[in-house]
Amino acid sequence: MSNLISRFHLLLLAVLLAITGVILMRVPDDFSYAAHWGAHSQPDWLWPRNLALSGAPIAAFLIMLVFIGLGLGLTKNRLLLTRHILDPALTVLLTVIDAVQMGFLLIGIGSDLDLIKLTAYGLGALLVVVGVVMAEAERNSYAGLRLPWPIRGDRTWRIVHRTTGIAFGMAGAGLLAAAWLNADLSLLLLALILAVTCPVAVAALATALVPER
């Protein structure tokens, strides 16, 4: 665990738990979050407070378990090769989860600041930049995808990275569009989840399926 879960990651987890505690103290038990708006601008899908605030801690603990498993499963050499990808990836994931939970707190206390939408804008812009950089990058020994299986051949490397870059760019653009179009809370959270998971899945599939050249 010490190889992938740093003290900073534990701090982010502690911040999440602290925000959750503040929600329990400041937001009434019977408060509900409007997850979807129907006709005449009336909410037709409500999330009870406890249901809404439980999602972020569950997601954070599951993600931490996945990274603990990666730390136990990867060899020392492979861990060294992938650390520069996995460490910031975990940081971004936990930061997004913290921001979403803070957004629930602000909504619950009646604040006009939509932190969840701002998070979607920020993450969307970041994913677009990552996508452009990855799609345009040439093969090198310092940056790029680091997965348990190697990418052999310059042509394969370019195909995989351009495919992955397009996936990151599309995920970022979709997230920006969802925020710009004032998507309902449930749709915006779904867009956040898809934006951080789909490009990673595309990267893994592209690396495994693209023929070696």
Automatic annotation (TrEMBL):
InterPro entries associated with the record: SdpI/YhfL
Keyword list, A-Z: Membrane, Transmembrane, Transmembrane helix
Transmembrane annotation, as ranges: 51-73, 85-109, 115-138, 159-181, 187-210
PANTHER family in alphabetical order: IMMUNITY PROTEIN SDPI
Protein name in the entry: SdpI family protein
